[in-house]
Amino acid sequence: LPSTPSMGWGVAMVGQVKVLTPPHTPQNHLRVSSQITESTIEITQSSKDIDTARSTVLDLRRTVQTLEIDLESLRHQKGGLEANLLEVENRYAAQMEHLNGLVLRAEAELLQVRNELQRQAEEYQALLNVKGKLETEIATYRQLLEGGEEFR
Predict the structure, then answer these.
(1) Where are the chain's structural domains?
(2) CA–CA separation, 58 vs 64, rounded Å?
(3) Name one GO cellular component term (predicted).
């Protein structure tokens, strides 16, 4: 068979591979074995790191879910407390309105009592004045009567 260019190319490639491939020596074998061991250790450590990261992510997801549940619970609790507060405020306003009505009625009654006392005090003073005048007149009439008997 005549030699073809493709065959020459194949022979050249085999030569290059032999040049690029290190010879099988114990040092090369140890170096390759050491590199494989280092790679295995790195892969093992990376796998552990990935497992740790996955575990951390799962823990964080659980924590987030727990916090979301807690938040929703607190929102419901807040809503309930706000409703209770509104109810208490409404009751308080109604009670204050009732008490203000009682105070206004008591103040009105007090004003009536004061006015009545003032009127009675004025009447009493007028009666005292009349009594004083009557006593003066009676005293005058007595003197006249007593003095008149002396004239008889």
Answers:
(1) 33-151
(2) 10
(3) keratin filament
DSSP 21: S
Are 31 and 25 contacting, i.e. CB atoms less than 8 angstroms apart?
no
22 CB-near residues (< 8 Å, 6+ apart): 28
Residue 146 CA to residue 120 CA, distance in Å, equals: 37
- pTM score, two decimals? 0.46
Token output for 3: 């030699």
* CB 65 within 8 Å of CB 59: no
* Structure-token pair, residue 94: 């109604």
Query: 25: which DSSP letter?
Result: -
According to the model, what pLDDT value does residue 100 have? 98
pLDDT along the chain (152 residues), means of 10: 52 58 74 87 90 96 98 97 98 98 98 98 98 96 81 49
CA distances from 149 to 26, 135, 141 (A): 174, 21, 12
| pLDDT (0 to 100) of residue 50 | 94
3-state helix, strand, coil in the chain (%, to 5): 95, 0, 5
